[in-house]
Structure formats: structure tokens, C-alpha cells
Amino acid sequence: xxxxxxxxxxxxxxxxxxxxxxxxxxxxxxxxxxxxxxxxxxxxxxxxxxxxxxxxxxxxxxxxxxxxxxxxxxxxxxxxxxxxxxxxxxxxxxxxxxxxxxxxxxxxxxxxxxxxxxxxxxxxxxxxxxxxxxxxxxxxxxxxxxxxxxxxxxxxxxxxxxxxxxxxxxxxxxxxxxxxxxxxxxxxxxxxxxxxxxxxxxxxxxxxxxxxxxxxxxxxxxxxxxxxxxxxxxxxxxxxxxxxxxxxxxxxxxxxxxxxxxxxxxxxxxxxxxxxxxxxxxxxxxxxxxxxxxxxxxxxxxxxxxxxxxxxxxxxxxxxxxxxxxxxxxxxxxxxxxxxxxxxxxxxxxxxxxxxxxxxxxxxxxxx
Length: 368
Ligand SMILES: [Zn+2]
Ligand SMILES: [Zn+2]
Hints:
By secondary structure, this protein is α/β, with parallel strands linked by helices. The chain folds into 2 domains: 3-164 and 281-367, Zn peptidases (Aminopeptidase), CATH 3.40.630; 166-277, Alpha-Beta Plaits (2-Layer Sandwich), CATH 3.30.70. It is built from 9 helices and 19 strands. The chain has helices at 8-16, 26-38, 90-104, 126-132, 190-202, 244-264, 285-299, 317-321, 352-367; strands spanning 44-47, 51-57, 60-70, 74-78, 81-85, 110-118, 141-149, 158-159, 162-163, 166-175, 179-180, 212-220, 228-229, 232-241, 268-272, 277-278, 304-305, 308-309, 326-336. The radius of gyration is 24 Å and the shape is elongated. It starts with 7 loop residues before the first helix and ends with a helix. The model has no long low-confidence stretch (mean pLDDT 97). It binds zinc ion (2 copies). Residues 88, 122, 340-341 line the site of one zinc ion.
């Protein structure tokens, strides 16, 4: 292998040209497999669908340290044509993990490093499917990384923790009883139930010291005519909270508010979470402190950015499903503008070198 073949900027450029949606990362995983084989590693494919795993073994006993990169792009419609674009920087993460692998080969003394190229983060299903395939079974420590927009941290800096929030959406089915609008007492209106439920949700009080939000984002209770009381409807709510206990408390209150508000007008409500509940970040604070020290040591004191947050990440299912795993997750300031998930997203790929350098030291502190 030559240094140039594992240049993070070059690999990011190549991966940027092959954006693929979640669970369809065929070209990307082939690219990853070929690179890993060039390094003399023995990649396993089909993890959680299109995911790839490879190990770099030490000679002495020690922990299994997993570094995870996501691989999928996002769907857009441009000029009336559907397309996929790497607008969340997962091409950068895949390139960083490959560059990291090249640096680690031959330098792992104890335990082993598990390189995990995860499918379908954007669908928030990739981590769960991979866990079902046993990706966590042998893991003691898990590291992750994400490029950050300029609004979060300056280009060229790195933060020791991205404090992702918990998020979910609720689908509420409403079942009432139809009747003539001239005889409303013979029916139960889902419109009234939806209005009462919305007001009940908006009247929920939570600790003002915590960050949380619950918004009704859709109400669909259309009757078939202006003089018919509608008997079925649907509501959607978007809910976010800074930590997992706050989310649990809020969802308990929301469910109670909706079920009781609907019942008040004789409507039956059922509440579902079709996308699951994405957990908030729960890092090992010892590892986070160690990471902050590493960023200063490797890049300089002025390159340690403040922790940033916002958005969801399916990485946090790891601790939920295997609480003994210790995790840390860096944010790499890469001048992302105008922002993540924008089809015109651009960034400074040179800054990915900072992410690789910090991850290398994080891993070697465990297994070097
Ligand atoms: Zn994203
Ligand atoms: Zn992302």
C-alpha cells in the first residue's frame, strides 16, 4: 500500500462520487472491502445488511475497541429527479475510518480494534439491524465521529463530545363515530378530539431547567362532506429531549394527555412510535475527559472546541442495548456550510486529518 492510497481527502473525494441510500451502500461497501484487503485485513460483509467489519489484532490480551463510521447518503429531488447526495458527511466518516485503519495496522499491541462501517444511519435503523447481527457482542469500548457545521464549532477545531438529543415521533390514530352534522349528539368527532389533544399536549409542563419540545406537526381529520362528523383521523407529533429520563417523563405525560383528551369526547386514541425512540447520548465521562486532553495534545490547546449538540444519532442504541460499553464521540469542525442535510452542503476536507489524528490517539490509549 502507498500513503497516497489511504489519504483521507482523496478517499473522501472518491466516496463522495458514489452516494448511496441506507441499506443500498453496495458500491461503498465494495470500496471499503477493497481498501481493507489492501491493508491485509480480512473484512466481513453483510453486517446489518450492507455493513462491513474488520479487526486489527494485538498480540497481548486487552479490550475490543470499536470505531464506527456510517456510510449512507441522503435522498433529494433536484430538477424533478430523485437523487442521493452525501449531505451529512458520511463519506467523510468512512474515509476517516479507512485512513485510521491504515495508521493502526501494525501498531495495536493489546486487545483488538474493530472497524465498523455501518449502513443506514439516516434511516435510524442501521445500528439496530447491526446489533441484531451481533456487532456489539465482543465490544468493550465504542468510538464515533461526525463532521460539524460552522454554526456548531469552528473549522479546524474538534470537540470531545457531540451531545445528541433524544428524538421520536408519535403517530396517533383517532377512532370516533360518524353522524349527520345536524345531530352531533349521535356521534363522536375526531376533530374535537384532535383539538383537545393538541391543547392538552401544549399544556404539559416539564422542568424548565431541561431542554425539551413537543410539537403537533400534522392533523388529518377530514370528513367526506361538510355536514358529516368525521369518525377517523390521525395526528403526528415531533418530540425531543436533552436526555433519556426527560424524554421518558415527557412521553408518559403526552400519552396521558392525548388518551384522556380523546376519551373526554368519546373518541378512542392509540399512540404508536413507528420510528422508535432514538436515545440521547450517554457517554463515559471519563473517556470524554480523556478525549478533551487528547485533542489539546494532538492539535493544540486552541483547537479544543466546546461540546456541541442537537440532532439524533443511532450510535446511541449501542449503550442502550449493551450498557457495559463505554462510548465517546467527537465532533470534527470541518467548515460544513450552509449546514448538514442541505443538498448544497460543502466542507473543508483537509480538516478531516484532525479527526483521524484524534481518533488514532483515542484508540491507541486503549490498545497501544
Ligand atoms: Zn444526517
Ligand atoms: Zn450524519
